[in-house]
Amino acid sequence: MALGYLSGTWLGALTVCRLAGVRDPRLAGSCNPGFSNVLRLYGTRLALATLVVDAAKGMPVLWLAMAMGMPPWAQGLVGLGVLLGHSYPAWHRFRGGKAVASAFGVMLVLTPWVALVCATLWSLLAWRVRTAAIATLASAALAPLASIWLAPDYVGVVIAFTLLVLARHVLNIRRLGRGNEPGL
């Protein structure tokens, strides 16, 4: 879990934006170092690079956990470490992202079909309603249901991931209720 946390603390948005020579995404827009804010601020190319880094950063430690024969709940703890590291990185004064791309990467390793179903729903909703928060909340809500069918050994793990992602979106839920959530 500690290795998961350490790998999770690498915030892809910061690396991508530094390499591109643009401003830190935590200083503009939603002030969130994640895919959606980078997309709004700097466009598709940097947002996709952020998504790749944030999704991939926890994969090696998860593969290690699987290779060691850890049971699903222990693999889930490693994955939860990645998400907590992304959300609350010690090196960045515990100001991290909302763990959506990281959760996608973790689930891509642990529950690939659930991850792909949720990513498909996220993409369709983001395209149709043009609001990342709605797409995220809907796909997060679908994840436990999809895991019942597609990855029953990981249902508890997926529920824990979903609760963390939903907790990280409390402000978005409030803004959606007020009708002032920014679009993509």
UniProtKB/TrEMBL annotation:
Keywords: Acyltransferase, Cell membrane, Lipid biosynthesis, Lipid metabolism, Membrane, Phospholipid biosynthesis, Phospholipid metabolism, Transferase, Transmembrane, Transmembrane helix. It comes from the Bacteria. SMART domains: G3P_acyltransf. It is an enzyme of class 2 (transferase). One of its GO terms (molecular function) is acyl-phosphate glycerol-3-phosphate acyltransferase activity. It is found in: Cell membrane. Its EC number is 2.3.1.275. The chain crosses the membrane at residues 103-125, 154-171. It catalyses: an acyl phosphate + sn-glycerol 3-phosphate = a 1-acyl-sn-glycero-3-phosphate + phosphate. It is a multi-pass membrane protein. GO terms for biological process: phospholipid biosynthetic process. The keyword Protease does not apply. One of its GO terms (cellular component) is plasma membrane. It holds the Pfam family G3P_acyltransf. Pathway: Lipid metabolism; phospholipid metabolism. Probably interacts with PlsX. Catalyzes the transfer of an acyl group from acyl-phosphate (acyl-PO(4)) to glycerol-3-phosphate (G3P) to form lysophosphatidic acid (LPA). This enzyme utilizes acyl-phosphate as fatty acyl donor, but not acyl-CoA or acyl-ACP. Belongs to the PlsY family. This is Glycerol-3-phosphate acyltransferase.
